[in-house]
Design a protein that fits this description.
With 558 residues, this protein is of the alpha/beta class. The chain has 20 helices and 25 strands. It has three domains: 303 residues, P-loop containing nucleotide triphosphate hydrolases (Rossmann fold), CATH 3.40.50; 118 residues, 2-Layer Sandwich (Domain 2, N(10)-formyltetrahydrofolate synthetase); 83 residues, Formyltetrahydrofolate synthetase, domain 3 (Roll), CATH 3.10.410.10. A hairpin with a 2-residue loop joins strand 5 and strand 6. Helix 7 crosses helix 8, helix 7 runs antiparallel to helix 11 and helix 14 packs across helix 15.
């Protein structure tokens, strides 16, 4: 029998009206702003009314470094949420929204897979409730107002060579990485070089995802540094007087989106900063609201634990005062074999020795997550090609690392295939052993924070950075930004900055080629290696096979 595609499974979902899903969490209908019948935004007034309610337990789902074999982190996040509900717990899933760029590129969507999905799948992976469009518009409004200010006299004395605010669009388009604007003569302004980033790399996205409420949102927007004068004095968004209008554009986007899993359990899908070039977590307001409404909140961090989990702990949890009770690290037998040197075409054949050779990548993630004081369980996301001996090899390795690995079959079986993991997560969370703390203090120097991440998480020997970068960090420290956390922009495929180096390498260095101040979001970005803030499409983009069929249904999304 042919295996159904994710989109076919999602299309057959027996969805309940979104008001019923809200009622499960005690959200009155009048506090839900519906977008059709199967998705809604939660009203700000209702969220404010939850302030005095106790919080549930927060469970993080993270993963090994991604491989072409696929790991299924979002699928496991959704499956675990369903599994917790299946064993009688009141659980909510919190995940990110999907970006159009990877949807039409190579990575695909972000709604889970198989029988562990969030629906409506098509809308979630396309325009959804318009949040990303609002973020794009707000970002580019500021861009337009900067150039407009310069055109009408430049009373702030902005140095055209020192404008750091670029433009964004929610698409992979390498042709726009570096551009020249204002060509065409006097009527169009003063020519200058700039460029585009993808919307999910915008500081506005990061700000929306870290803001507590609309007042906090406007303050953070106002704090954005957009340019400098010839004397290197910073020019802020509030100096351009754009923060108020940007907040208006983001008013609805700030409200968390409520949808449902295939098993009709509630899911919050809100925000979506990239994990390799931004902080890679869903919004603080969605997570904190869910914690007030449920006993368990299952959320994910982007890519592998070296990027996603580290930023979740050191940025999001630090900023929002969150304390995770347990962490799940997703791994697959196939990915272990790839880390052990097996080519993708040969993954179907049993190779226990390759599994063992690849396990050190998983082992390093286990020890890294434990270093934050969070107890760990490994979820082995099952594939039909896995053999008992290969699965046992992973379990034995994880046991030697002082943790437990549990085989999970949620992709094929839904919540019934992940009950064991759900029960183990409850045991970890209820044990009270979690003693979370970030791996560096606020008052550590900025370069020392970069070194701490590189050495403790990536296991690098050193950080390589030009004197100009170190000097820039010192200038920001002198300006009062030294307390900010670091957001490392690095390839997701390796502990190094070389995407081809798998496993658990040592003896490498981390080159930092640029640093950027995100004063509104409240972190400093360290760009390492060849990471791009505007990705390109692959040779054969997914967009080539996405279409409407004869019944008017979407085909090709995954």
């Amino acid at each position: 029998m042919a295996v159904k595609s994710d989109i076919e499974i999602a299309r057959e979902a027996n969805k309940k009206p979104i008001m019923e899903i809200g009622a499960k969490l005690g959200i009155p209908a009048e506090h839900l702003l519906p977008y059709g019948h199967d998705k809604a935004k939660i009203g700000q007034d209702f969220i404010k009314g939850l302030a005095d309610k106790p919080k549930g337990k927060l469970i993080l789902v993270t993963a090994i470094n991604p491989t072409p074999a696929g790991e299924g982190k979002t699928t496991t996040t959704v499956g675990l949420g369903d599994g917790l509900n299946r064993i009688g717990k009141n659980a909510v899933v919190c995940i990110r929204e999907a970006s159009l760029g990877p949807n039409f590129g190579m990575k695909g969507g972000a709604a889970g897979g198989g029988y562990s999905q969030v629906v409506p799948m098509e809308e979630m992976n396309l325009h959804f409730t318009g949040d990303f469009h609002a973020i794009t518009s707000a970002h580019n409004l500021l861009s337009a107002m900067i150039d407009n200010h310069i055109y009408w006299g430049n009373s702030l004395e902005i140095d055209l060579r020192r404008i750091v605010w670029r433009r964004v669009m929610d698409m992979n388009d390498r042709a726009l990485r570096d551009t020249v604007v204002n060509l065409g003569g006097v009527a169009n302004g003063f020519p200058r070089q700039t460029g585009f980033d993808i919307t999910v790399a915008s500081e506005v996205m990061a700000i929306l995802c870290l803001s507590r409420d609309l007042d906090d949102l406007q303050k953070r927007l106002g704090d954005i540094v957009v340019a400098y004068t010839r004397e290197k004095k910073p020019i802020y968004c509030r100096d351009i007087k754009a923060d108020g209008a940007m907040t208006v554009l983001l008013k609805d986007a700030m409200q968390p989106n409520l949808v449902q899993t295939l098993e009709n359990n509630p899911a919050f899908v809100h925000g979506g900063p990239f994990a390799n070039i931004a902080h890679g977590c869903n919004s603080v307001i969605a997570t904190t609201t869910a914690l007030k409404l449920a006993d368990y909140v299952v959320t994910e961090a982007g890519f592998g634990a070296d990027l996603g989990a580290e930023k979740f702990f050191d940025i999001k949890c630090r900023k929002a005062g969150l304390k995770p009770s347990a962490a799940v690290i997703v791994a697959t037998v196939r990915a272990m074999k790839m880390n052990g040197g097996v080519a993708k075409a040969d993954l179907g054949a049993e190779n226990v020795e390759a599994v063992k050779s690849g396990c050190p990548n998983l082992g390093r993630h286990i020890s890294n997550v434990k270093s934050f004081g969070v107890p760990v369980v490994v979820a082995i996301n099952h594939f039909v090609s896995d053999t008992d001996a290969e699965v046992q090899a992973v379990k034995d390795y994880v046991a030697a690392q002082g943790a437990t690995a549990i085989l999970c079959k949620h992709w094929a079986q839904g919540s019934a295939g992940i009950e064991d993991l759900a029960r183990h997560v409850v045991d970890l969370a209820e044990s009270g052993v979690a003693d979370f703390a970030p791996i560096y203090p606020d008052d550590m120097g900025l370069f020392e924070k970069i070194e701490t991440i590189a050495k403790n998480i990536y296991h690098a020997d050193a950080v390589v950075a030009d004197k100009s970068i170190r000097d820039q960090l010192k200038v920001w420290e002198a300006a009062g930004y030294g307390h900010l956390p670091i957001c490392m922009a690095k390839t997701q495929y390796s502990f190094t900055t070389d995407p081809n180096v798998r496993g658990a390498p040592t003896g490498h260095s981390i080159p930092v080629r640029e640093v950027r101040l995100s004063a509104g979001a409240g972190f400093v970005v360290a760009i390492c290696g060849e990471i791009m803030t505007m990705p390109g499409l692959p040779r054969v983009p997914s967009a080539e096979t996405i279409r409407l069929n004869d019944a008017g249904q979407i085909e090709g999304l995954f």
